[in-house]
Specification:
Number of helices of chain B: 0
Structural class of chain A: mainly beta
Number of strands of chain A: 11
Helix content of chain B: under 10%
Order of helices and strands of chain B: EEEEEEEEEEE
Oligomer: heterodimer
Distance between the termini of chain A: 41 Å
Number of strands of chain B: 11
Largest sheet of chain B: 7 strands, mixed
Shape of chain A: globular
Radius of gyration of chain B: 13 Å
Radius of gyration of chain A: 13 Å
Low-confidence stretches of chain B: none
Structural class of chain B: mainly beta
Distance between the termini of chain B: 36 Å
């Protein structure tokens, strides 16, 4: 079945630095979604990418969908303490989303 | 705002018990989903439903069943609970629509099987 791999599993970031988390699928995806889960909270939808090579920005967050629609990345610039949490990518086929294992981000002040 | 409500935040049950987890959404969503979340494994789909009385197996359906008698309610049933079903359970819902709709999650039920 479809597998979505996400790296790294953990990301420890100095406040103010940038980082990137990556998502790779074994199959071509119809779209990819990104979610954020704050500690003790539930996943919250951030964004969806549909087109090959698509790039979308939300303030300091930049999301990219690969040309082959098999990979995606989330880049955060100037990390803040509010960025703490786990970021999940989820690849879509039919009704189902296949979630990656997530990247858990901690921030050093 | 979409509201997905799970009946219990924490639940402790014994091995062999039949366990019911309830989920209700208030946005008239067609699709509803049950996931379990375990450290290092992300969210794994147990079952989903795209209409009343319809259900489809997800990636890890063994040991679970579901019921969708009303559009707003989706129940997850552990027929005979086992310790390896100790986990965080998340319910989600979404519109069916065209294209791909975001999923809205409940706060989760942390289930411990002793």
């Amino acid at each position: 079945g479809q597998q979505v791999m996400q790296i790294p599993q953990y990301q420890h970031v100095q406040e103010g630095e940038d980082f990137t988390t990556y998502c790779n699928s074994s199959t071509t995806l119809s779209n990819i979604q990104w979610y954020k889960q704050r500690p003790g909270g539930h996943p919250v939808f951030l964004i969806q990418l549909v087109k090959s090579g698509e790039v979308k920005k939300q303030k300091r967050l930049t999301f990219q969908f690969g040309e082959a629609k098999k990979n995606s990345s989330l880049h955060i610039t100037a990390t803040q303490t509010t960025d703490v949490g786990t970021y999940f990518c989820a690849g879509r086929n039919d009704y189902k989303l296949s979630f990656g294992a997530g990247t858990t981000v901690t921030v050093r002040a | 705002d979409v509201k997905v409500t799970q009946s219990s935040r924490y639940l402790v049950k014994r091995t062999g018990e039949k366990v019911f987890l309830e989920c209700v959404q208030d946005m008239d969503h067609e699709n509803m989903f049950w996931y379990r979340q375990d450290p290092g494994l992300g969210l794994r789909l147990i079952y989903f439903s795209y209409d009343v009385k319809m259900k489809e197996k997800g990636d890890i359906p063994e040991g679970y069943s579901v019921s969708r008698e009303k559009k707003e309610r989706f129940s997850l049933i552990l027929e005979s609970a086992s310790t390896n079903q100790t986990s965080m359970y998340l319910c989600a819902s979404s519109f069916q629509g065209t294209g791909n709709q975001p999923q809205h999650f409940g706060d989760g039920t942390r289930l411990s099987i002793l």
